[in-house]
Amino acid sequence: MAASSSTGSATEPPGLETQWREIDNLNQQQLRAGDSWYLLDKRWYDQWKEYVHAGDQNSSSYPGKIDNTELYEDLDSYHLKERLSENEDFVLVPAEAWHKLLSWYDMMDNQPPLERKVVDLPSTVKVEVYPVEIYLCLSSNMESTVSACFSRADKIHAIHQKIRQHFNVSETAESRLWMRSTDTSSERLRNLNMTILDSCLSSGMTVIMEIRNADGTWPTSRPQIMRNSADEDSYRGPPGVCGLTNLGNTCFMNSALQCLSNTPPLTEYFLRNSYLEELNFTNPLGMKGEIAEAYADVIKQMWSGRHYSVVPRVFKTKVGHFASQFLGYQQHDSQELLSFLLDGLHEDLNRVKKKEYIELRDADGRPDQEVAEEAWRNHLRRNDSVIVDTFHGLFKSTLVCPECNKVSVTFDPFCYLSVPLPVSKERVMEVFYVSLDPTAKPTQYRLIVPKAGRVIDLCTSLSQATGVPPNQMAVADVFNHRFYRIYQADESLSCILDRDDIFVYQLSSGCVDQDGEEVVMAIYMRERSHYRDYGSGSNNYGTSLFGHPLLMSVPRAQCTREDLYQLLLKRLARYVHPLDPSEEVEEEEDEEDLYKAQTNGVSDDEGEEDSEEAGPSKKEEETQESGQAEEQNNCQSEASPSSEGEEKAEEEESSSEPDRGSSTEEGQSACGSTDTNSQDATDGDQSAGVEPSGKEEEDEDEDEEEEEEAASCAQANKRLPGRRRNTEKQKKALFTIQAVNSNGTTERGMGEVDGGFSFSSQPYIAIDWDPDMKKKYYNENEAEKYIKHQSMDVPHQQITVQLQECIELFTTVETLEEENPWYCPTCKKHQLATKKLDLWSLPEVLIIHLKRFSYTKYSREKLDTIVEFPLRDLDFSGFLLKKTVNSTEPPCRYDLISVSNHFGGLRDGHYTSYARNKDNGQWYYFDDSKVTYAREEQIVTSAVYLLFYQRQDKIRQPTVPPPVPSSSQPENHISSQTHDGMDGASSCVSMETD
């Protein structure tokens, strides 16, 4: 694990505008192989941008220390989470930008930097966010493995050296390497100068070093190392009924491959080796035949009838070579992979060796039939392949200028139809409602709101269920025990995702208006933690957030510390137990414990040592004590309000230095800040309660003491010693209060004036708990309880539409978006024209892409609408403009042959497929390496993503009878990646011999 990048303290940053300009300029750098870039939590980065754009260094949006917690799998190994997405979970910044941010803001203690290298890969240069993690071992002891990370640009020689170093293998020992995938089969790594990418090594695989025996033989030549007796070589099964091994998030690829594999005309083309005669090695738009050859190899293995499952590693590598977006092992879209593959196969197999330039003509009033035939002929002059023969159709595009009514008609080829799904104008949202009644548990509601509505519409819908006026509600997104965002009433609901935890808080009417008597305060719960800083040898205290945050109305001005403490006690009454009367008063003999609690437990030695440096000596402290006692009578206790009639105790001096851009008075209360001694994890480099923020002056004579006694409490607080001398009865507190930034991580000034607080903007405070007090008085189980409203029991109605409706939407007139205008040749300018698509001719195999993933500028969602579609007799005659004029025209009826499914949401999910075997007519379900029988009634689900239809006149009857599923086989299991009883971790491994 890399060492922590925390520097212990941040340097003074430049002005906010300068910060933004410097970082923004650095982020424009081009990627260069070998450079370092760093991952930065997207939420922290957004918070920083909000802070620097606010232009106010005292803003509550101050981001605090860099915190990448949400990017780590855990805080022990600090491994990066899987399936993180750039610009959603993290941003990448160049090394210089990272070091600037680090010097300005520091980093959470013990977190290592997430440094990644820029690598030069085929067809692209990119930051390698996820290096390849490979397990290393010796063939003599395959139970003992070690993991190591490598770049895909590293050579096999680097792995070879790593194994030698770790297992202390002599440089003179003769050795060879094998790579083993999860299915226990192994392949020899012969070329040490080949890159890891070219060798098809992926994360999770094992590289084994085999050392030659003293007698000159290799261990693999011995009988006990030979293949398992249950070898796949003995398998005989139906051709095409074969799984595909998941190489690591490659289910999207496997699903698309299964659909294409079960497309009869394409598969038969490759099985007949027809592709060998049509490989185009000179096409500049192609891949030198490599994609076609790799695809052919996969198809031949799948249809040999000799494999339970095929490992498409070489094919995956070739795809990554020519399409950098598919490099690595992140999840992708099966339709995007399919689109690339069909285009790649077409160019690799294009019969046109030299493409001629063809000038496109507009229809100019000519008959559609004439223009369509011309367009198709022109298309074939440049594009002629088995892909065109099988998948290409023609549609008519009509554009109308809104200004001059110019009509432009063109006919364009297509390879698949991307059809929209009917979208509801309403949306279901689930929220937690927090009542103003402190004894009431939060209630979860399911609401119907306008999809294009605003936050006020959400409040209006909730108001109908609760009776609370919508203008007395505050809506917030709660994430990781803090407010990720507090929404304004006029914000669009599209910025709220379904996965967000939305809380709606009831507020009193006094804070509704901007100039009202109350203001909304954000409240976080924090628990103090103690840790030892071995670098400095001192004890430090941090805090960690817990529980659910709150929004509460507080007086805008003149809210005393006692008022605030009592308001918080009342608000937390449901799950915070009050102090017993016997515990409310702490006697003089408990002074040492009270001091430690309020200074976060600074030890005697540390407190005295620091006091000698920063404040008066113990003798001087005693001298001051009598003169300051009267001043303390007019000040409130830092830990809690004092009871009426009780004599106030001396207050400990504030330990924190003033916050960035705030005065000392703003950073402290009249008698000390709200727990400025409780140092956040981000401020752990300062010892609590020992370093005065104001300048200490010694009392030299009684006149000076009298002047000091007459000073205000704020001035008295500046001169208080760093150590409490408690001689009076002190009321005990459950918690202390600290002003923080909006992340709840960095302490801020409270803005106390004349003995009371005055809030001009959104304040954030933290309730800091000592662990023992929290354990005794805070009921975590009760705090987590909530009530489900009856609306949650109403089943979510699944929307069902017909496939024909989607096709009708595809042919509906629409207006072009501003980002994609049309240039009108008559007006001589770009226009937002109307556009209409119509189907003219259809291919033998029609691929229909259901556009389930909706991406707009303001929202993203996946539509789980059930689309009902026929398995047989899909009739397109009603959608075709080109009418059948004679009996030689092909029919317009199609039968389903395969389906690609997507389960899950936007961020993650799983792809599978259904397909009908061309030889026996049986439907199968393909889930990576697993294959099972399927029934036709199972196919129509809300997960259907891609539909493959074949025209009825091209469908051949099955050549063999369908198999009879055995009832003795669980789930009608056909094949799997590994044999029963074969242990993937076994020391026996199959290796080829020289």
UniProtKB/TrEMBL annotation:
Presence of the UniProt keyword Nucleus in the record = yes
Q: Name one GO biological process term.
A: protein deubiquitination
* Record's GO cellular component terms: cytoplasm; nucleus
What start and end residues bound the annotated signal peptide?
A: none
* Start and end residues of each stretch annotated as Disordered: 580-730, 957-994
Which SUPFAM superfamilies does the UniProt entry name for this protein? Cysteine proteinases, DUSP-like
Q: Member of which family?
A: Belongs to the peptidase C19 family.
Q: Supply the name of the protein.
A: Ubiquitin carboxyl-terminal hydrolase
What organism is the protein native to?
Answer: Cyprinus carpio
